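seq:
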Amino acid sequence: MDKNIMKTIIGEKHHEIAQVELVKRPVIYEDSMSYVNVGIRRAGKSWLLYQDVKQRIADGKISIEDCLYVNFEDERIAGITSQELGQFIDCYQEMFGLKKPLVYLDEIQNIDGWEKFVRRLAEAKYRIMVTGSNAKMLSKEIASTLGGSFVIREVFPFSWKEYLSYHGIFPGSNWQFEPETRLAVRTRFEDYFYNGGFAETFPIVGKREWLTSLLQKILMGDIISRYKIRNDRQLRLLVRKVADNVMQPTAVSRFEHIIKSSGEKISLPTVKDYLEYLEECYLVYSIPNFASADSEQETLRKRYFMDNGLLNLYLYKGETKLLENLVALQLRKKYWDPEEPKLFFYKHRSVDLDFYVPQENLAVQASYDLTAQATRDREINALVDFSKVFKLDRALIITYDEEETIEKDGLTIEVIPVWKWLLM
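struct:
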């Protein structure tokens, strides 16, 4: 690898970070720990690295020259191997002296063996920040290789609270009783609901074009190119059908049948692989049925998108799906564990429950509105019937804009607007 190119990359990043203006996110990184930030593309992983650098400079702890920052999506270092990564340390020390920089390695997931290089740096007492867009970086195997000095965190697009902060709205503890703040919160929610939380879309008019471009980058760069998929029509059709089936428990075999019925030849193992790729690149994620046997939990699952804006690219009048997707995402952020499922749906006989968190004795239904009596009865009865089998400490129905408290058969059900619940 050409060292002059490496040195140019180091110098360019120093200039870029010094010039960039950030919207600060409420994330704290300890001085004594190293971190791996994992999440969907454009969620803000790189910006969190910038934020760490700039905060340390502002605190007087370092100067910009104390940092070694490399973005591995830079085409000038395409094809770099893990054996060559150490050359960046050599180049840095040739430029700034024989000292240990703070090391920032951005989008490193496609370099085989990266974790061993990072572990070696950690053992040499470097502080390291890593980002990647592959969910495999959350695995126990990676965590074991990196060692105990690393914290692995998921990074998501902006939350509803962060979205409001970006727009200068800061709801306090009593915001719902302040008419101006409540109106501002309620008015802003439509944009977030339909277009999602990618901060780069907030100031632009062409949000759909930006989201479409991101989706193509994920499909082409993170899946089709990486896994050498020759028939990309099958993958694209599968993504559309996952969007169509948001809210519905769907088996892998069902997706196979749907794709075949469209005229495509595809095998069950291929469909399973494609679904795994979609989860690995953080486009979608899935949750199992609490009522299913362990073997079935791996096949019959509900699948959701990592952001409403990406899901909405596939929908027409999809408010019901967008609401449940947003509720699912919030619950995933709070209760997700890649090694041991903690968030479920429940479907067994006549009981159909959207979400169940056993450790919290929490049951949640997502319903756009309760104006139709049949819908109201269905949502309430599902919670009541479920509570007769499993102890519940809290039962919720999340709606778009309705709020009340319902008592039935000894169960208290809170009906809460989603734009309020997301701020709790």
